[in-house]
């Protein structure tokens, strides 16, 4: 008979004192700082990691108010009452707080950035205390500070950027409305920066911008704001300064820049700047409107000859014109995006009957607005030039023309030349040549079918760039025409260096050749000299049969004008007809 096994010995009850000691030992050796408080917020426990981070001894904290010792003020020293304390909120509400970004005050009276979590300790139906765990947020705070700096400052100069200045400008408007203070905004644009950048390279340009930033900073008062807006444009927000004093400050900045010389690799450059000033008052509508007004005033200073200061006045007719130009910017950009720049073609007719000439036409442009209303380029091209949209328009026209020519591929043998106008911005754009080459390669249009037209003024103003562009595209077979030729009779000297095939005689001479003997003589002289140089001539503004007859007698090679043919949509043109 088997005997029943004896019952197991009763489990030994754990010693509560030993458990508490063991728990304290684990918490004390935990790498995460923490402390505990009772229901009154007095510290009942603090571990070694917390003591090490905050610099206290344990006796100095135990029994003390956690709020009074560690959380009595914000980082900037602003007092925090016990009623506002996050510890009190948890003790009263019973809801934990997670990852609160705040500061605890160290023994040495310096704020310690921390991420802090508070967990309530329940006792029966109530809250008997709380455990506060935290971690050092110094590195995090430093990273946040660094990111905030990068978001608000220009990386090249260390000045404020446009975003931060706009924020401060809005704050200045609010101050003007609330307290009646008057501030001022100055918009500054360097006059010769592009020359330095183009001749000495971007490294020189960057160094110059840094030096200009330092120079402008020397003229700032405490509380003023200096920003680089982009490129060679700067802005200054002058706090609590009436407009008369702001104008005087702008004039002193202009003089300082005029007296500054920039040296780079044994070359010395002189500088000047155009400045626009606008008051910031209780009537100011927005930062965007103020920046636009200051930009308009700056452009007015440029129009008056540069190296001067201009103030924005609502009733100034010149500024109103510039303001109208600015309103074109969005309309032009929208037209490009929506393909509402409509291309037209106006024929160029050869007067010689000795050979069969193919179709030759100039591409013109209209901007289509609502209800198919067409706007002529004279209304919007000045704004495009002023606000650097001319190159975008040129590229749009080239893409559209090449696409149309690609659709006409079976008839391309009937085309002599498609003449496309280029702006000064495109002639001076180092990337423009690559754009043309890629466009030609993409569409496989023979380069000899293209003739680029550049005005005489643009060619002379950008002579080196024009010569380089003309030479490199001429090697591919592209042709070039010098438009509006003859308005400056010193032009003939430049023809020896520019590889152009056509001279388009300025229409101001052509339109009056019937009744004005002087204009007739000028047209004849230009025609003769062009032929001596191996160039062909094109006469514009041929508006009557009488003008055509005189031009034929003079020996002009080609004619263009409403009498020869009205501009018509490019898409309706049929080559060979």
List keywords for this structure.
577 residues, alpha/beta, Beta-Lactamase, Alpha-Beta Plaits, TIM Barrel, 3 domains, eleven-stranded mixed β-sheet, five-stranded antiparallel β-sheet, 22 helices, 23 strands, 42% helix
Q: How would you sum up this structure in a few lines?
A:
The protein has 577 residues and is of the alpha/beta class. The protein folds into three domains: 29-141, Beta-Lactamase (2-Layer Sandwich), CATH 3.30.450.20; 154-314, Alpha-Beta Plaits (2-Layer Sandwich), CATH 3.30.70; 329-572, TIM Barrel, CATH 3.20.20.
**What is the CATH level 1 assignment of the largest domain?**
Alpha Beta
Number of domains: 3
How many DSSP-defined strands?
Answer: 23
* Number of discrete helical segments: 22
| CATH homology group of the largest domain | EAL domain
What's the architecture of the largest domain, going by CATH? Alpha-Beta Barrel
- Fill in the CATH topology of the largest domain: TIM Barrel
Largest sheet: 11 strands, mixed
Percent helix range: 40-55%
Intertermini distance: 127 Å
Mean pLDDT: 88
Please state roughly what percent of the residues sit in beta strands, choosing from under 5%, 5-15%, 15-25%, 25-35%, 35-45% or over 45%: 15-25%
Envelope shape: elongated
Q: Radius of gyration in whole Å, from Cα?
A: 38 Å
Structural class call reads: alpha/beta
Low-confidence stretches: none
């Amino acid at each position: 008979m088997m005997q029943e096994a004896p019952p197991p010995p009763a489990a030994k009850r754990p010693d509560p004192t030993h458990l508490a000691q063991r728990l304290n030992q684990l918490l004390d050796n935990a790498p995460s700082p923490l402390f505990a408080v009772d229901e009154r917020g007095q510290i009942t426990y603090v571990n070694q990691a917390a003591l090490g981070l905050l610099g206290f001894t344990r006796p100095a904290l135990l029994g003390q108010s956690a709020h009074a010792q560690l959380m009595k003020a914000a980082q900037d020293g602003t007092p925090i009452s016990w009623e506002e304390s996050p510890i009190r909120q948890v003790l009263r509400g019973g809801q934990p707080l997670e990852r609160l970004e705040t500061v605890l005050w160290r023994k040495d009276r310096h704020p310690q950035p921390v991420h802090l979590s508070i967990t309530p300790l329940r006792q029966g139906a109530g809250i008997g205390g709380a455990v506060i765990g935290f971690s050092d947020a110094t590195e995090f705070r430093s990273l946040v500070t660094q990111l905030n700096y990068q978001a608000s400052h220009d990386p090249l100069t260390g000045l404020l950027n446009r975003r931060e200045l706009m924020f401060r400008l809005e704050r200045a408007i609010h101050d003007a409305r609330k307290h009646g203070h008057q501030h001022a905004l100055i918009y500054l644009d360097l006059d010769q920066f592009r020359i330095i950048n183009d001749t000495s390279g971007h490294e020189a340009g960057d160094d110059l911008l840094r030096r200009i930033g330092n120079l402008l900073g020397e003229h700032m008062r405490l509380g003023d704001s200096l920003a680089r807006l982009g490129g060679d444009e700067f802005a200054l927000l002058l706090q609590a300064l009436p407009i008369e004093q702001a104008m005087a400050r702008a004039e002193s900045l202009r003089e300082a820049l005029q007296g500054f010389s920039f040296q780079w690799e044994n070359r010395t450059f002189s500088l000047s700047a155009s400045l626009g000033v606008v008051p910031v008052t209780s009537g100011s509508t927005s930062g965007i409107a103020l920046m636009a007004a200051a930009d308009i005033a700056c452009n007015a200073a440029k129009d008056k000859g540069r190296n001067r200061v201009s103030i924005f006045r609502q009733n100034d007719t010149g500024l109103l014109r510039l303001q109208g130009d600015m309103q074109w910017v969005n309309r032009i950009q929208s037209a490009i995006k929506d393909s509402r720049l409509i291309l037209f073609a106006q024929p160029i007719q050869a007067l010689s009957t000795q050979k069969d000439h193919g179709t030759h036409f100039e591409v013109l442009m209209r901007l289509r607005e609502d209800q198919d209303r067409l706007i002529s380029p004279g209304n919007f091209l000045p704004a495009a030039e002023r606000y650097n949209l001319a190159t975008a328009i040129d590229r749009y026209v080239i893409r559209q023309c090449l696409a149309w020519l690609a659709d006409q591929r079976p008839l391309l043998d009937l085309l002599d030349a498609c003449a496309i106008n280029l702006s000064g911005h495109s002639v001076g754009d180092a990337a423009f040549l690559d754009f043309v080459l890629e466009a030609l390669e993409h569409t496989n249009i023979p380069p000899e079918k293209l003739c680029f037209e550049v005005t005489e003024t643009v060619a002379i103003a950008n002579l080196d760039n024009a010569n380089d562009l003309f030479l490199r595209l001429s090697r591919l077979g592209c042709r070039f025409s010098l438009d509006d030729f003859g308005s400056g009779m010193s032009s003939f000297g430049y023809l020896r260096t520019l590889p152009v095939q056509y001279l388009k005689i300025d229409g101001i001479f052509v339109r009056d050749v019937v009744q004005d003997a002087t204009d007739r003589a000028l047209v004849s002289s230009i025609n003769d000299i062009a032929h001596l140089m191996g160039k062909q001539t094109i006469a514009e503004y041929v508006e009557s049969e009488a003008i055509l007859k005189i031009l034929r007698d003079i020996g002009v090679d080609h004619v263009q004008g409403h009498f020869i043919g009205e501009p018509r949509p490019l898409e309706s043109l049929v080559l060979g007809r």
